[in-house]
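Case study B.
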Amino acid sequence: MSSFFNNVDWYDIWLATLDTLMMLGGSMLFTVLFGLPLGVILFLTAPKQMFEQKALYGILSFFVNVLRSLPFIILLIVMIPLTLLITGTSLGVAGAIPPLVAGATPFFARLVETALREVDKGIIEATQAMGASTWQIITQALLPEARPGIIAASTVTAITLVSYTAMAGVVGAGGLGDLAIRFGYQRFQTDVMVVTVVLLLILVQLLQSLGDRLVIHFSRK
Amino acid sequence: MIQFKHVHKAYKVGGREITALEPCDLQIPEGQIFGLIGHSGAGKSTLLRLINRLEEPTSGSILVKDQDITALDAAALRRFRQGVGMIFQHFNLLSSKTVADNVAMPLKLANELSKSQIRARVHQLLERVGLTDHAQKYPAQLSGGQKQRVGIARALSTNPSILLCDEATSALDPQTTGQVLQLLNEINRELNLTIVLITHEMDVIRRICDQVAVMDAGRIVEQGSVSEVFLHPQHPTTRRFVYEDEHLDEQEQLKRFAQITGCIIKLTFQGESTYSPLLGEVARHSGVDYSILNGRIDYIRDTPYGQLTLSLIGGNTAAALDAFRAADVMVEILRP
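Model:
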């Protein structure tokens, strides 16, 4: 048994896991920070919604679509100059977070927009009739009502980010994906490959079941 | 008092203008229950939403307590809306909030009361609608009637002077409808609340409204006190609504009476005369015999009324008709 894991340096695995978690946490934080308002704006300015703004919606929608249609591996490389500008490095955890956020934010924003569309229009009307301001409608009615949908969107986004962090290994971001590619693939160390894949699987499973639990907890329908 | 002065509403759909409400003048007196009845698409929903400006009028002005609400800016409109409650066909409660939090919502939005004051007010409201045991439940755990009572408690939380009801009982079964109408009737009396309701059921109008306006194709075609409109409908649309409620069709009825001999008349009693022993008295004095072909004794809000279709045989028919008229009974001769 121990001979099978000959090549595995558990300390390296531990460091790589931490890197992955940091990339995931950091990029998730900024993705939600940028993606949630973007999703709300997309929802509000969409045709036939509260603040229909054809031009603004068109422009935002176009950029979201462009970023979403770019394969992440390309985005990683294209983003390097911008990443350098933001973080001063294109390597490591710090270098990975800007492209991760750029890749995940439009995706998350679209999911948020969809979740908000699921909110019954009657509830928005009722809140308006109470004399709520636009800000109150968003914070007191729309977001609480869409909470299960937004949590589900966050889960999907987090899992997408896990696979993105693995890809970010290609451009020197570190983490489990990087380990899998450098040792598992390029040095034919199957044991390292197995360990990293299992860890990634566990991470995805944990995220999914945590997300599912939260959705159930906050669903009152 | 709510006053519509030449209010007109049109939508633009793909370059074409569609009229939702023809220029309309309307007065809704304070403290009354005012019913708007019409088929779907008749414009009643638009008219109701103009009162709290969920719909903006294309032209005309709307006065609420002598204030032109079409001139309010955004902040003033929000304050005005806090004084106008609204309930809905599908309740529109927030599924993510408990019953108590739903009722507290307008108060939290208004941000005028402290937390403990809000809690006390919510308790008082839930007591009024009989839902104190359900305060911590979520709307999904309640029945339709309970949900609508939460809706009513929520609408009343800011002590409004006007309550708008958008088909408030259309999604409820007959028994629950009765309870919700009863509750609306009570709060109208207790709080001197002006209630404007829209419905497509004449029964709702008959049971709780003081005044009614009948709408058809974006226009008010008939308007007046409920007893007047209900007992003597003029416009074809109104007649349809009344006969739907009574499950009768006048033309068909006359055909069915073809075999029956004698003079066929329809008597309409209202108020105290409904319960007086008039038929026997008139028959004795004029010598006519009568048979009852059709009839209904019921209430319009709290006033009893009766409508009987009789055939009169033999005796002095003219004297009988005079005697009915003398007793303040409205007589219609359906077939001499």
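Residues 254-335 of chain B form a domain with the Alpha-Beta Plaits fold (CATH 3.30.70.260). The remaining cases will be described in the next quarterly update.
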